[in-house]
Amino acid sequence: MGRGPPRPGGPWARVLLAASVLGSCLQPAPAQSTRPPGTIVLSPPSPVVGGGVSLAPRDPPQNVLSCNWFRSETEVPSRRILTYYPSAPSNTSIGLAHTGRETGGPGCALHIAGVTLSDTGTYSLVMEAPGNRVLAAVLLRVWASVLGSCLQPAPVQSTRPPGTIVLSPPSPAVGGGVSLAPRDPPQNVLSCAWFRSATTDETRRILTYYPSAPSDPITGPAHTGRETGGPGCALHIAGVTLSDTGTYSLLMEAPGNRVLTAVLLRVWEMLPRPTVMPNQTLVPENRTFSLTCNSSPSADTRLWLRDGEPLGPSRRLVLSPDNRTLTVLNVTRGDAGAYQCEVGNAVSSNRSEPSPVTVTYSPPPDADLGLSAGAIAGIIIGSLAGVALAGVVAYFLYSRCRIEPPQAKAAPVLVYENLPPTACAGGAAPPRSPRDPGPTYETLQPRQPDVYEELK
């Protein structure tokens, strides 16, 4: 007798239902297909603990100069992971949020190796290109396991282990206040002892606070008069200064429990305006010049700009490891402009006054526009010879004018005529007779046009 179809609600139906639920977890729809151009794509879209993940922008701008990655929704300097320069990958600059597992790559990609649950959060990218600035962000969620990723997504707040100290605000500024409070302190705490050191050194004790008697704290050698204790074993510091930067530790005593934890407190100053040296540069074409950004030591980021546009390293633009010095090689006329440096830290940013750079034309090194000593001597001798020749000509003309006899006033003008000799009146001359060697001149007598006078 044949077996009929399985009854509704039977064991086979439950197996098929479980398989379909599990399959829906193991095959998530690719999230990148729903992202518009310009957003960040995750690969793989659902990274798991211990694996790697790449965050890359879709359709980045052309000719990107720098890629700035932040572990936050906006570009907060204290949350900067790294700055990657596509034209000079080896000059990657790391930020305060760098953990040692992040690297930059082509296409402004960010690669994170060995991800943990603490990597869950929002990541943003600022891409700087000539005349263009693009900001994109993405939420990265790290899953505990393939099956657990569907059933138990890891909450972001689990990134802090119990017992750690939380700063509020996370980046205190000079003159403000800050609170240091343990997260999830033990139950029934009897005393909270705060130290200005990484250990419980009594000489570095700030105060001891008793939750059951908050009005009776005991101050220690490291107390400055600005520290007070508060509920939850918190420590409040008013009017913080740069000298308050350092490691703070907390020892919490509870019945049958003793917890020691520490935190690094960094106080930031409002950055003054940096200066660029030299403040004006005149450089010939094809030469080299360098500019230095003088700023506060608390500046953790530096950016160079020309005519308001950010500059990244290239074959001709060389940046020092801390971006403090910019060197331009083989200067062209396009390198002329107003240069500025911009500095930033967790609480402020500031930009220098423009420093103009003028590029002048430089002739080729082998071109010699000067005259040699021999050429100069030849010019002098030639000039003297010309002056002497002009003097001789002037003297000759002057002498010739002086030897000409002056003409007699009202004297008759004599007209001479050279005529061949004529035969004598007595007859023809005998043949082969000797010829008189002397010339014969005849002239008309004055006022007697028909009488001739013979002159010998």
What would you note in describing this structure?
With 456 residues, this protein is mostly beta strands. Among the domains are: 32-157, Immunoglobulin-like, CATH 2.60.40; 160-265, Sandwich (Immunoglobulin-like), CATH 2.60.40; 275-360, Immunoglobulins (Immunoglobulin-like), CATH 2.60.40. Helix content is 11%, strand content 34%. The longest helix has 31 residues, at 373-403. Mean pLDDT is 78; it is low at 24-37 and 146-162.
How can the largest sheet be summarized?
6 strands, mixed
Gross CATH architecture of the domain at 32-157:
Sandwich
Gyration radius over CA: 52 Å
CATH first level of the domain at 32-157: which class?
Mainly Beta
* CA-based shape: elongated
Number of strands: 31
Mean pLDDT, rounded to whole units? 78
Low-confidence stretches: 24-37, 146-162
Short description:
With 456 residues, the chain is mainly beta. It has 3 helices and 31 strands. The strands form 7 sheets. Strands 20, 22, 23, 26, 27 and 28 form a 6-stranded mixed β-sheet that branches. The protein has a 5-stranded antiparallel β-sheet with strand order 5-4-3-8-9, with no helix packed on it.
